[in-house]
Design goal:
366 residues; alpha/beta; 9-stranded mixed β-sheet; 3-stranded mixed β-sheet; 12 helices
Length: 366
């Protein structure tokens, strides 16, 4: 029997995790992982509570020279660098073939790591994967941030197998197939460390939200695949850093989605896509208007304004990214895989499709 025991760095980005009880609540499950060769690394993102003191009391080592010899390690950053840059800075200090980037509000099962190691060991063209992600409070439901693997529509709107916008499905084994997806959730992202660094890691300009989709899209453009591993299961609380109704979350989601679409879509067709996106985002603003969520309307317009005032710098960045992709390319782009070639907005809000499988019956009807 083939042995899969490459060293895995389980990396948790923490911000005030002692105050909100995520560290004492979820670290115990990480310590019980049934895998022979892993270390736990907590990157503290400038917490203002006593997170670091708590971790030191739990025996976390802070000496980089002893990281590989210690099961529990702490990397303290000088301030809150947000999700994307915080991970980049911390991962620069961690040497491991595989990273598992794990949100601090995730409970894992003891055997969840081995299937993902086996998946990436089996195929060098699979750059990253994710486990099945279910809801912590309602454990038979898929969770918003990843569910059974991320997809995207042609306009850059993300959704998941098991989750369309805010509509989540009950897990009844309908997505228990090994398959390729478009993006793996940042809540539990298993990735080859060398590829994470080669493509530049997370885009720090994103701050938070959508950065994992942008990263996976870059990897797919180079020719790699993103996998889904149903034999691996975790439970995610969600909304730990920014609540679901937060205007800042709305701003980051709309802004970063536009940037992701623009940076990663080849050709002049992108300008048609952006035009349609702006219209559909406006429809979303009208929906917020009728529900009285005025701050979210402002967030959408702020996201669009950011895109317009930074357009020329984004265009330069897009051009440089294209050059980098061409240098790193290992084969044809795989970004057509797990991409919905219609509008998920139209299918869900206008045709009433609430499940992933229903989307494809919608296509047949059309």
């Amino acid at each position: 029997m083939e042995i899969h025991n490459k060293y895995v760095a389980v990396v948790i980005l923490n911000y005030n995790g002692k105050k909100n009880e995520y560290l004492p609540r979820f670290l115990p499950s990480v310590n019980l992982i049934d895998y022979p060769n892993y270390g736990v690394y907590v990157i503290d993102n400038g917490s203002t509570d006593d997170s670091c003191a708590y971790l030191r009391s739990q025996g976390f080592n802070e000496d980089p020279n002893k990281f590989k010899d210690s099961k529990h390690n702490l990397i303290s950053l000088d301030k809150n660098h947000w999700f994307a840059k915080g991970y980049n800075l911390g991962l620069d200090q961690i040497d491991a073939p595989y990273y598992l980037l794990l949100n601090s509000d995730v409970e894992v099962t003891p055997g969840f790591l081995t299937p993902m190691v086996q998946l990436l060991d089996s195929d060098a063209t699979i750059a990253a994967c994710q486990p099945k992600i279910r809801m912590f409070d309602e454990k038979d439901l898929f969770e918003h941030a990843g569910a059974a693997g991320g997809w995207i529509d042609y306009l850059g709107y993300p959704f998941c197998r098991g989750r369309i916008f805010s509509q989540v499905e009950k897990d009844m084994g309908q997505y228990d197939d090994d398959t390729f997806i478009f993006w793996a959730s940042g809540a539990a992202l298993f990735i080859r460390s060398n590829l994470f660094k080669e493509v530049g890691g997370f885009d720090p300009d994103f701050k938070a939200h959508m950065e994992e989709i942008d990263l996976c899209w870059r990897l797919k453009r180079i020719g790699y695949q993103i996998g889904y591993c149903p034999d691996s299961v975790v439970w995610h609380v969600g909304g730990g850093t920014l609540p679901k109704q937060s205007p800042m979350k709305t701003y980051l989601n709309f802004r970063n989605s536009l940037i992701t679409l623009y940076q990663n879509t080849e050709g002049r067709i992108i300008y048609s896509y952006i035009f349609i996106r702006l219209i559909l985002d406006g429809v979303a603003a009208v929906r917020f208007l009728f529900s009285g969520e005025f701050a979210n309307i402002v967030s959408i317009f702020k996201a669009h304004w950011y895109f317009f005032i930074h357009f020329f710098s984004l265009r330069t960045k897009r051009s440089k990214l294209r050059e980098k992709i061409n240098l790193l390319r290992i084969g044809p782009s795989t970004d057509h895989i797990a991409k919905y070639d219609r509008s998920i907005v139209w299918a869900h809000f206008f045709k009433g499709k609430t499940t992933f499988k229903a989307l494809f019956s919608a296509k047949k009807e059309e």
